[in-house]
DNA sequence: AGAGCCATGTAAGAGGTTACATGATTAG
DNA sequence: CTAATCATGTAACCTCTTACATGGCTCT
């Protein structure tokens, strides 16, 4: 009843990542997803969605909430990762994204948490994603060569190819900026 | 009861576009969204989703289905656009997409249907989207200049800027390929 | 006294995904 | 005779979005 096969989304991993940094309760987390916060600049999440995500992650056994009462105010649910949740987060963190469209959100999250949690693995993260992108360029280029110039499919492949080259340039820029890159904060 | 404020998605507009070309029934449409079809190369839709989309569009008054019986087999529902549906489709078609991430899917659909329905308006479609992209480049560049080099936000803006430049190059390439571009087909 | 922050949620409505159900016709 | 094609859907489950509900505390 716990493990539906639905894959987790960016919101789920972002919550896992924040709880990995330190156990927190829902209301305390929401500030990180605000427009002013660095994380919120990449991914906006409001309270309703945040509470939904916490419920979901707890239902799936990736986090556990501990109730903390304090006087008359509503009790806080302070969540922390379970071993399963921790394993899942670590697995996700270094895995390159499959589709170039996921660079914008998923990969950026990996970058954010890798910078804060394991800055020494940034090189590795970037290298893996670069390899993935270069492989995709190979494949798309091959497809492109077999398509009639000016056909609709050809136009689409040109777009994908351009996007992939953009990704490669950006990844290389991030890698070279590495030394001066700051650890993101709230 | 018909007009919920939920915006239509790419699937809805693709279905509207196909029905604009000629009235069809559900099963007849699904082939267009197959991997072998040009449209299916950009947007994959299976039968369940297609039937759901047809129901949705009819509920909202954008299309109407006419039942066509033929012997003992299940009756076909042949759908065609209502005036409202036609107006909505035309409005959508020339409107540039707001976010660069929507180029990949929404704009490609506009391009596809514009090529098949109004090839003479392709120039206009491309020009409008180019203007939109150049404006966004201006805005992002301004933001970028105010951010500390190497900060997380700065890295994200660099990514967006690269993606926007890629879009501009691609749009210009499509515009220049214009003369030789083929009208897409099944 | 009122605004805003702290802290939790539920409810309603829509949409996406996958699987399942039904049955005739046609091609090999 | 068996597989694919024609042609329609429903059911179950999950997610997303928006709105609504509750109430104390703190600061001005």
Tell me what the structure shows.
Chain A is 60% helix and 10% strand. Chain A has eight helices and three strands; from the N terminus they run αβαααββαααα. Chain A has helices spanning 10-21, 26-29, 38-42, 47-59, 83-94, 103-117, 122-145, 152-177; strands spanning 24-25, 63-70, 73-81. In chain A, helix 1 (10-21) packs across helix 4, helix 1 (10-21) runs parallel beside helix 6 (103-117) and helix 7 packs antiparallel against helix 8 (152-177). Chains A and B meet through helix 3, helix 6 and helix 8 of A and helix 3, helix 6 and helix 8 of B. The structure holds a DNA duplex (28 and 28 nucleotides).
Strand tally of chain A, please?
3
Number of helices of chain A: 8
Q: Unreliable segments of chain A (pLDDT under 50, ≥5 consecutive)?
A: none
Rg of chain A (C-alpha, Å): 19 Å
Oligomer: homodimer
How do the strands line up in the largest sheet of chain A? 1-3-2
Q: Based on helices, strands and strand pairing, what is the structural class of chain A?
A: mainly alpha
Task: Summarize the amount of helix of chain A as a percent range.
Answer: 55-70%
The SSE order of chain A reads HEHHHEEHHHH
Which word captures the global form of chain A?
Answer: elongated
- pLDDT average of chain A, as an integer? 92
């Amino acid at each position: 009843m716990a493990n539906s096969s639905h894959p987790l989304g960016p919101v789920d991993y972002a919550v896992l990542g924040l709880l990995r940094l330190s156990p927190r309760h829902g209301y305390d987390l929401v500030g990180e997803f605000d427009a002013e916060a660095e994380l919120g600049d990449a991914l906006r999440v409001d309270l309703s969605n945040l509470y939904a995500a916490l419920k979901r992650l707890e239902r799936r056994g990736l986090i556990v909430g501990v109730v903390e009462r304090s006087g008359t105010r509503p009790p806080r649910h302070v969540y922390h990762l379970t071993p399963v949740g921790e394993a899942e987060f670590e697995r996700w963190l270094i895995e390159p994204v499959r589709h170039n469209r996921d660079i914008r959100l998923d990969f950026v999250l990996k970058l954010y948490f890798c910078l804060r949690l394991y800055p020494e693995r940034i090189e590795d993260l970037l290298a893996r994603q670069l390899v993935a992108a270069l492989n995709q360029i190979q494949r798309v280029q091959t497809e492109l060569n077999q398509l009639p110039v000016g056909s609709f499919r050809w136009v689409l492949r040109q777009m994908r190819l351009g996007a992939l080259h953009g990704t490669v340039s950006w990844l290389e820029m991030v890698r070279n900026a590495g030394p001066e890159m700051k650890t993101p904060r709230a």
